[in-house]
# Entry
Amino acid sequence: MKNTPQTPLAFDLGGRSVRLFRGGELKLDGGAMFGIIPKPLWERTTPADDKNRITLACNCLLVESADSDRRVLVETGHGDKYDEKQRRIFGIDPAHWVKPALRDAGVEPDTISDVVLTHLHFDHAGGLTRLDGEHVATTFPKATAHVQRAELRDTRANFGIMTESYRDENLTPLDDAQAWNELDGECEIVPGIHAMLTPGHTRGHQSIVIAGADRTLVYTGDVMPTAAHVGAPWNMAYDLQPLDNRASKHKLLSAAAERDWILIIDHELTTPAVTVARERDWFGLVPIR
# Structure
């Protein structure tokens, strides 16, 4: 099924449903996105524009359960809080982000009970808050935001590769609302949704495991931001700890292949839903269409 705001990809896991929404798109430098991989290799599948930028999706998930009235949003994309210069640099259209995408499907922001984040870079946490006139307000006023304590600590310290990745505007309204739930390691976040530690891109990065009675689906986060990043050395220059990220990717792909998990790849434009197959000493991806 083609992924559009009108017809999002949907999965019935058995008592738990997951819908994929496009929380916007942005452009980042292709060289930075592929680190040590030479451009002649990565541009075969991921073409760059005249500024060497590649287009990335901000895929978000809405999780609903038959035995609960909770509505859980996994990731929020880039949001709408960008001036003209930032829009031009990142190729962001502030009219297209997770809030209007959800509303197009009849999902109002105040019906979201929980927001789960892999990490707090602006293209993942930007949708937590929104412009309200000249002020910034929470997008999901009744939601608790779940993130690893280590990630929130590094965010407040601006500990990262890019100084603009962590932005106070995405934190302060939630601080004021006391909306954070700080996770400490691998745990059940809400019933049926678990945190899987996958450090490397950031020290507190987590992937999100959503289990139903019949199937399990995992949101990868930036441990593997696109399908092209499946290879062992295909890390981003943005990764804080490249070798740790490689180990996390192996952990995730190995479990996915062994247990027949569905993976949702956060920045993948064309084939965001995949399964994993072993290929010699590594892994390959099988798109779900």
